[in-house]
Fold each of these.
Amino acid sequence: MQTRNRAELKKRLAQVRGEKALLPQASIVIPVNAQSDLQNVLQIVCDIVAYQGVNRLEIILVINNYPPNSSPKEIKEYRALGLLVLAVPKLKERGEIYLTARIPGVRIASSEYTIHFDADCRIPNPTKLIDWYVGQFDRGAQLAYTYVGYYDLPRNLSTTAWMAIHRAFRWFKRVVLRIPISRGSNYAVTRSLMLNLYDKGLLSYDIKVGTTIKSMGGTIAYSGDRALTVLTSGRNFRGDWKELLEYIVWRVRYYQRLIPLRSDATRPR
């Protein structure tokens, strides 16, 4: 990063954090795989610091997956910018590494409102999104999430078909089965609830956060407003018909494994 850009980013980080003597209204937690996302994460950080709202924000990076005796230089660099960086060379996995990596960040969060993204996400409208999340928390939500799209997808027919089927499955799960589809790349949850569920062994995957909170009667908010969309990277897509078939088989088996949720659980608003 050029010196001028670094100075501007540091300035914007200080502005979105606001007065240090005051607690932030929201803590944004982002796991960072040191093997693949140390530079990618700067894109979403730049998206976040474009925030123009009134809420004070802290950004927590949980940098992980690197040799203990060879810490990435970015750890010191990002701390110098004003980011709160937690460095964990090797995480003790419990189920999914992404959820496992979020928990240390949640533990050190200064706010009860925690917002979760992935390092390769992009946020087209951070002001509307973050203010919506804080607003839902203020109104009593324990979990909130919005629509997730993709960028950098392969441009071919099989990928187009994959996306159409994926959206159909997602709609079926949320509307017909009434199951929250919060996922790691974009959701927000109260800090105390997330830690309580994790420490009790009830959470092992990001995709389980929504279903677990719903099953206990938690208050959940959802918005499909495209202005609140978060984009996740399509870098891992192969873009072939075999991949599509594998996805369909996996998704069908996933629904077959679903455990029915309590009928009186709170519906997303």
Note: The mean pLDDT is 85.
Amino acid sequence: MARPYYIFSNGRLKRKENTIRIETQNGKKDIPVEEVAAIYVFGEMDLNSKLLNFLSQHEIPLHIYNYYGFYAGSYLPRERNVSGELLVRQVKHYLDKEKRLYLAFTFVEGAIFHILRNLRSYHDTEGFKRKIEQELNKACEVKKLNELMGCEGRARSVYYQAFSNMLKPEEFVMEKRERRPPTNPVNALISFGNSLIYTTVLSEIYKTPLNPTISYLHEPRERRYSLSLDIAEIFKPLMVDAIILKLINNNMLKLSDFDADVNYCYLNENGRRKFITEYEKKLTTTIKHRKLKRKVSYRSLIRIECYKLIKHLLGDDVYKPFKAWW
């Protein structure tokens, strides 16, 4: 079964007959192309057009991360699952203010549902939950996208303030969310995890006819796949934040798993390996789907969300955000 491969060392990535060869200072490794779902590069790797053509033939995305472990860009093979009709519908829903606002709200609704779900697992979070629920109620009544974004931003701000009550080790503290750059371990974890879920969602969108550049909550811009940001909002609290809380509260991560560079805090290679190990476990964990009546993985839930959105855009069904029931 195909799975993602994560490369942390420096070296060369190339095609070797019908395999992908990874050459590092530790030696050479050949991987049958059928076993590769996506490649994540964290080290400095040399590659050439022969490899990129090979990846394109087998529809394998390549995601690149920078020195600090944060997302830099992706190589996506030529789109094969294209649909002119769906593209037109995506654009129409973006241009129609009412339709766009509805979809934008559903992404916020799904995100806040899982935020509240996380808070319910910890003591002394009642005050935070009330404030977030108030923002959700306000979001239900807004008429403009910027007002919705304001509600979502305030809800997340309160949520991150609650992290001080949810994290046990005293050395892991978080006063506020910092993105560029993250200056403490908790912010570094959130940024790293969010970049992983972004590329995971992007890989799943690529397998559908959806255009990843046309979005509804986040404004479409050049040089980013903003629909990935929309859908990732639903899964960040459910997956990324849950992993962060587990790693810290179970003492699986130490301060030694982080490095600092001027005012920049980031996971070192050992820390990234620990996070990605738990991230892959989460993606492959299965649950019994209530509607499909079969077990599906967390990764499959993301793909299912894409197809639910497609049905909505085509007018076959009304989109409702995924909400974990277990």
Note: The chain is about 50% helix and 15% strand.
